[in-house]
Predict the structure.
Amino acid sequence: MAAAAYLLLVRVRDPLITNIALLITPFASFLLAEAVHASGVLAVVAAGLIISFTSGRISTAASRRQTESAWPLGSYLLNGALFVLIGLQVQAAMHEIDARDAGRLLLTTVAVWLALIIIRFVFQTVSVAVIRVLDRRPSQRGRRMTYRARIVSSIAGFRGAVSLAIALSVPSALDDGSPLPGRDDIIFISAGVIVLTMLVQGPLLPTVVRWAQLPEESEEEELRLAELTIASAAVSAVDELADELRISADVCGRVAGEYRSHLSLVQALHAGSDPEPPTQAHREETVLRQAVLDRKREALLGLRLAGTVDDTVARRLQTRLDIEEQRLTGVEIVD
């Protein structure tokens, strides 16, 4: 299903169709897997991983802008509904469980929760040992996880939607129609493990991270490196593309000058030299452009209130202003 979605979406440029196809893909994967008596849950996870890995090639800027606006709300609502579902399922399962088994199930839940943390740590330790044997390159040695980092990763292994979905996918009856023994126990233990990860591992994680004394994040350095590579590629390609597309020399020079100016700023930041003059100029330019955008919005609002333009035109212009502002400040990242 992921391959079929990829072959379809690389040929589609309409943002609405793209996002609808992306939304349908997990449901189609689930139904197809269930039709051949496979795991629909694992099929959805596999399709999601593949689509996520190839999303840069099958989505467009317009489709991504739609999802950036809509998906955070949808994700928040789905997560809220998930915890409601956990409560309903646990309540239903508890009605079917004998009170004499409550203690056993609680102990089993704690044991399973601890076993998952230990298994996660052991798996990472074994993986590191295997990599050390197979790959002796210096670059690989620099990427190896310390035991403290593996402990942090083990504590950070929260359980949630996938764990509950797998538990709920266990059939409620056998082939002969009789109830499946132990299904309520599975749901109870799964829900209990999810609650423990949220209520114990969650509050404990910051303390474990501070104890681990992990190296500082290199996100800013990676960002500067990516910007440098992208800007260099743009400057190198602009003349060649101008000749290929038969762009006039004036337009090519104006575009190339803008990219070279951006590249010089990124190079100064990446080299660690004193970037204060270009940085200050860049900040002043950003502030001025944002102030001008505010005036544009005020003028557009005046036209809308006066009835000079209708809602459709106002929304189109507002979208253009929003895109221009995102180009200046960057798209907001939602955790």
About this structure: The first helix runs from residue 2 to 9. The chain has four domains: 1-59, 79-215, 218-273, 280-335. Residues 167 and 187 are 6 Å apart (CA to CA).
